[in-house]
Amino acid sequence: MKTMRLFLLDYAILWFLNWLLTKAVFTSLVFASISCTSLFAFRVYETEHLESINEQIVRTFIALIFSNAVKYIFYPVFKKSLTFDYIYIHIFLGTISVVLANWLFNSVFKTRIKPKKYIVIGREKEIGHILDEITRKTRGEYQFVQYINPSPTTLKEKIKTYDHVLVANYELYKHVDYLLENSTAKIEYLSELAERVLRRIPLEVIENFKEYYELEFQKAKESPMKRIIDILGGIVGLIISLPIMLFFGIWILIEDGWPVFFKHLRVGKNGRYFQFVKLRSLKQEGFDPSNPNGTIQTRMLKIGKIIRPLRIDELPQFWLVLKGEMSLVGPRPEMVEYHRVYSNRIPYYQYRLRLKPGITGWAQINYQHTTTLEEYKKKTEYDLYYIKNRSTIMDLRIILQTIEAIFWRRGAR
After folding, report:
1. How many CB atoms lie under 10 A from the CB of residue 185?
2. What is the mean pLDDT of the chain?
3. Angle between helices 373-389 and 190-198 (to 10 degrees)
4. What is the pLDDT of residue 153?
5. Distance CA 243, CA 206 (A)
6. Which of 144-148, 274-278, 398-402 has the lowest mean pLDDT?
């Protein structure tokens, strides 16, 4: 709700600014839509970025530069409006207007939020660290005051003093749910709250709501619309990327010789192996099969320092998307070496293989490059969130926000 209100506020501001500059109502509507989509893609509306005026300025400024670049793609259509004066004023005045409006809106919004205090049905040692993270991410909007590992008597006494009850362990809840039948307290489930705030599903939460999540994960399947988007995206991606791949392929050849492409077995949908391909960005010598990621920095080609952060090395995968072995969006295709190690050490890992792996994905844009077991566990939590919540809208969101991940050089490498 907060994001939608901010989006509409920025849309109104940018439409008015475009109208002042172009005096064309329809063109202003189109330009404002492109600009606001770019603001969303660069995560201007996320809570942690709204809290920082510096983040707002940088992200809004880059988003408006990017949106004007997109308008130039359609330059013949908008030729009369895209003057130098328009672009200069739009970027700078738009940045000032949007940042000021978002900062004021967020400041007022925060003052109107009253912290919600919860009594928790669950064990602190199991999920305390997750609830602490939720409190930090929401800037204290959710506060977990007391844990009840019920004793029905204790819960009956405490429930009278709280307006909110958080069910963090469903098995414990089933033993005391009758005590809450006539209570006025609002009951919430950690499964819903963790997903909403953290945008991933912690493994401890899955364990505490095991039956629910296993049923949800088993529902995951590829939709016809997802395949249509993959085919269209694969064709467009290949057409655009072929000259780029040719240029950098020649560069790789000059710097380090053949082969230009790096081929490697990866794990795809339902655990099937497939031949993964990238533009080669590392030297061939020094590869350690027991720790493939451990020698990346020492083996990096000079051209690799350019193409890896910008994800240019991933471009050949558009062909794999057309073949149906990968999707535009999905979990990262894992190396066989890591798959063999972590599939037995990370609970519920197998469910991330319910969908095709993707060129980009929820974990890739929201989490860092992974090397340790704990990092792989957290990455799996993001993958499982995607498996459960995947939709066409979510896929389009991930594709948009991949642009931001490239600019900020975050996520999988």
Report:
1. 15
2. 90
3. 100
4. 66
5. 45
6. 144-148
- 177's CB contacts (< 8 A; 6+ apart) are none
The one-letter amino acid code at 241 reads S
Distance between CA 281 and CA 318 in Å, rounded?
18
- Distance from C-alpha of 102 to C-alpha of 213, rounded to nearest angstrom: 37
Burial status of residue 124 (CB atoms within 10 A of its CB: 0-12, 13-18, 19 or more): middle
Residue with tokens 């408006």: 64
Residues 6 or more apart whose CB falls under 8 angstroms from that of 17 comprise 90, 93, 94, 97
Residue type, 360: T
Check whether 413 has a pLDDT greater than 60.
no
Contact 14, 40 (CB under 8 A): no
134-154 pLDDT per residue, tens: 999 998 899 998 888 766 667
Please tell me the chain's helix, strand, coil percentages from 3-state DSSP, rounded to the nearest 5.
65, 10, 25
CA distance 317 to 308: 14
State pTM to two decimals.
0.89
Least Cα distance to 116 among 182, 154, 162 occurs for 162
Per-residue pLDDT band for 157 (boundaries 50, 70, 90) equals confident
